[in-house]
Amino acid sequence: MKNGIKALLLVCCVLFGSVAFGQNLKFGVINSQEIISKMPERDSAEAKLMKLRTELGNQIESLQVEFNQKYQAYAQGREKMADLVRQTKEKELSDLQNRIQEYGQNAEQELSKQQAALLKPIVDKINEAIKAVGKANGFAYIFDTAIPSLAYYDAAQAVDVLPLVVKQLGIKEKPAAATPKK
């Protein structure tokens, strides 16, 4: 009896396995970074990030100029300063240098946070378009080649769905820049 159940299970596995392998699964590939570069919204996001980067950089530069001026004044008059004045100036310089470093770290965090916030709607829109293309065109899987977790794919078997997603998003291709003739 046990052998009969095992045999039945084996036959079921073979039948279901052959049905599963008999399916023509359609796989697609896409490079999400290339899509992001084509999105019109990216230009606006990049401009906002550039503006923020410039503002933060100007502030750091201003703090650095202030530090350099105070350091020069300290270095020129250090020999004539009383110990208490010299120690106070050194502490002031050290505090200012720490503020500059802290501001730089906070500026990097703010830039990263703003970049994530500005790119999120773009990435969400792309993901929705990929899902729509996958469903409409019968893809079982679409792999993003921009993410290095994909170890291998046969380019002859995979379909690059980038043009379909670009079309789904309604992105108009920018004309290629003309190369000057020599």
Verbal overview:
The chain has helices at 2-22, 32-38, 40-77, 83-136, 162-169; strands at residues 27-30, 141-144, 159-160. It is mainly alpha-helical and 182 residues long. The chain has one domain (23-169). Strands 2-1-3 form a three-stranded parallel β-sheet. The radius of gyration is 30 Å and the shape is rod-shaped.
Task: Write a short abstract of this structure.
The chain is mainly alpha-helical and 182 residues long. It is 70% helix and 5% strand.
Question: Top keywords for this entry?
Answer:
mainly alpha; 3-stranded parallel beta sheet; 5 helices; 3 strands; 5% strand
How large is the radius of gyration?
A: 30 Å
Q: Give start-end ranges of low-pLDDT stretches.
A: 1-20
The profile of the biggest β sheet is:
3 strands, parallel
Mean pLDDT: 81
How many domains? The number is 1
Helix-strand string: HEHHHEEH
Shape: rod-shaped
Q: SS-based structural class?
A: mainly alpha
Q: What level of helicity do the residues show? A: over 70%
Task: Describe the strand arrangement of the main beta sheet, using strand numbers.
Answer: 2-1-3
Number of strands: 3
What is the count of helical runs?
5
Strand fraction equals: 5-15%
Cα end-to-end separation: 86 Å
SSE inventory with pairings:
Layout: H1 2-22, E1 27-30, H2 32-38, H3 40-77, H4 83-136, E2 141-144, E3 159-160, H5 162-169
Parallel strand pairs: 1-2, 1-3
